[in-house]
Description:
The complex is a heterodimer.
Chain A: H1 2-39, H2 45-85, H3 88-103, H4 110-136, H5 138-145, H6 151-155, H7 157-170, H8 174-190, H9 198-223
Helix pairs in contact in A: 1-2, 2-3, 2-4, 3-4, 8-9
Chain B: H1 2-5, H2 8-38, H3 43-75, H4 78-85, H5 90-103, H6 116-130, H7 132-148, H8 152-157, H9 162-188, H10 200-220, H11 231-245
Helix pairs in contact in B: 2-4, 3-4, 3-11, 5-6, 10-11
Amino acid sequence: xxxxxxxxxxxKTHVIGRTATAVTLVMLVGAPFxxxxxxxxxxxxxxxxxxxxxxxxxxxVSSVVEFLVYTPMLGAGGGYLAFITGNLIxxxxxxxxxxxxxxxxxxxxxxxxxxxxxxxxxSSLTTITVLALGVLLLVPLQPVLQSEALQPAFANVVPAxxxxxxxxxxxxxIKLACVPLTIMTLLFTFVPSLISQTSIMIIPAGxxxxxxxxxxxxxxxxxx
Amino acid sequence: xLSQLNSAPLYLxxxxxxxxxxxxCIVFMVRAYKAGIAIGMDPVKLKRTLTxxxxxSILPSVGILLGVIALSGSLGTPWPWLxxxxxxxxHYETQVAQAAxxxxxxxxxxxxxxxxxxxxxxxxxxxxxxxWGMVLxxxxxxxYLQKLSGDPKEKKDGKKSFxxxxxVAMFIGLVSTYIxxxxxxxxxxxxxxxxxxxxxxxxxxxxxxxxxxxxIYLTEKKNMVWLESFSIAGSMLAGMxxxxxx
Lengths: 224, 246
């Protein structure tokens, strides 16, 4: 029963995922034209094309890399949702990994697919709710959120997130973590201009970690 | 111009798209929950996944809200609200909006210089530049995952495949990159080996990590399993508080 059910579930996930993605894409690209028609000025396509050539290409390459690297982490449902809702590195990926850790599921299993989808959906709904409430209460909230005293806290959300996750993951994989951490620290120390390219540097760091993990996994397999 | 960008029709357009995406999230969530129950997963585990994901996401979402506030001064509130609720990324939006503004002839991204053409062009560019992940997902998600899926027998046995190890390794690489960038930023942020860069991210990450160690101790050694759902959020809060204190 399970196998047939899961097959049907998976098939439908792709149908719903693709449909939702297509509709969102159309709405997202259509919105500037609709807004433009309300404002009485449609987008300047030639300026947009020039802009795309100067800034869009980098983000296109980055999107390809993100798709290739993160889709296997997120699974089918989680993947569709995460690419629709965005904020992958600073929220969706760590959130899905945390949920996976708590649930104890393994990559590629139906359980992992379900946990990942639940986690990304809950995370996306939380962001949507917080932003909607924030927009609704923008006037009273703005002075609080933009107060001088709170700025250091909000400027350091990502270090706070990765500090906690570093402990969670490094403690069980200390040998594996030492190498990429040392290499990245040395690289950012001696080529500080790379700090502005941190999201791109994830790729070589990930490749080094996967390479090392493969060597360790293979050695373990040979010993067993 | 700003009053036009904050007008009711713009809220309606952007709000409808956000509402659609929220509905998609609910559909996926309900389906996944039902599927989990149907294949015999523990409902407690499923509920804990939901709780932990919600608590996990609150603080980063407030950070994203700050992005909306930052952009609302020049682009109005509805558009940044949409961009950061759907597909957008905090680090991306400001950068692209700024670059797009320059392309349409503005000296800087500001409400004072904004024109209707400039706004609709910036909005289009912001959408087009970041949509490729969705495009790839639409065309290749299914085929890519099918190609990557390992031996079905191995999965049935519940054995840990290399795919699993690879995902953990990739994530370790991701975390190492960020931690390395904080250390590098402090050591060489204001000149190579000057040790005069920003120390705050390192302190924040260390406090957050220590707090996480405390949570893990309580969860694993003192059997306070319920704490697990709040461990990341609690650790982040401690780290962010440290940023204020230091």
